[in-house]
Amino acid sequence: MADEQQNLKGMFRKLDELRARYDELSNQMNQPEIARDASRSRALAREHGNLKHIVEPYLEYLSAASAVEESRAIADDPEADADLQELAREELTAAEASAEALITSMKEALVTGEDAAVDSVIMEIRAGTGGEEAALFARNLYEMYQRYADRVGLRIEMLDSSASDMGGFKELILNIKGPEVYRKLGYEGGGHRVQRVPETESQGRVHTSAATVAVLPEAEEVDVQINWEKDVIEHVSRAGGPGGQNVNKVSSAIKLEHVPTGITVSMRDEKSQHKNRAKARRILITRLYETEMQAQRSERDASRKTMIGSGDRSQRIRTYNFPQNRCTDHRIGVDQNLDKVMAGELDELIEALQKYDVQQRLANL
Prior knowledge:
Blueprint: H1 2-29, H2 32-35, H3 38-75, H4 82-116, E1 120-127, H5 131-152, E2 155-163, E3 169-177, H6 181-185, E4 190-196, E5 207-217, E6 232-237, H7 245-249, E7 253-258, E8 263-267, H8 273-300, E9 316-321, E10 326-329, E11 334-337, H9 338-342, H10 347-363
Parallel strand pairs: 4-9
Antiparallel strand pairs: 1-3, 1-5, 2-3, 4-5, 6-7, 7-8, 9-10, 10-11
């Protein structure tokens, strides 16, 4: 009990700090000189929006806590009217229940607020072991996410792709936008395993193949410091694959190499060199941002393990068993109907992952 009270005190101190910062940002955003600086204004609005998910539940709690104190003061006042005291006791019970529920909401907002504020992610899907069958499975995953996105109102833009001979994908890079998209799809990062009879299998034997998925919050240039002239080497070449005369005559493919980290990004999807460069820069910024965030998380809480944002492709998170029509998420031990999952009905699975993730994070506060 003492530990719980101490944890609550620490949480309220943190919330007070965040509220003060939220108010400070609100004041700064109303200043004319800030409004005229588009870059500064955008950065402040972004931070303000991130804090809003955390501060609003706290403000609701403060209002409920005030109602509790008012009702308790009347209920305990020996000089108060008896009927008024009875009414105050009834209101006190409801106010205490409301305040208790809001404490839970505040805890969840505190551990997920940063993720909930992300409305744009870069998703990378790559075929793993299994050759053509793995490439076909990568395509199946893309179609599954597309169906889910259509159902919940997310928008998908294909940034780059590399097709296989049988119509699968060796690699896909997508930009997915929408409210709380990272809270919805952040749990998809990791290894996905499929068990089924491949189209290339003549004996009817079940094979196991794999694909990997990474989901990274899309960062803006204001989040990452890049010297494009000194730190990044740009390579220009002709795009490969189908495309007619443009492929043969125009150098449109772009490869960016970030010298300090060794991170490289290749983009060849567009016929326009300018468009490929712009897409490659978006992906490079996002990968650098994620590398920086991972390092900060490791320093801050090396002992804490959270599911979202790990992007660990070596971790097998899910198995898609077609003969048994079963999809198993290994992190939470939940089985789902595979037909529904592949149709994009991921809501139940995602909600279970969110609930489990919040529990893990709260335990490590």
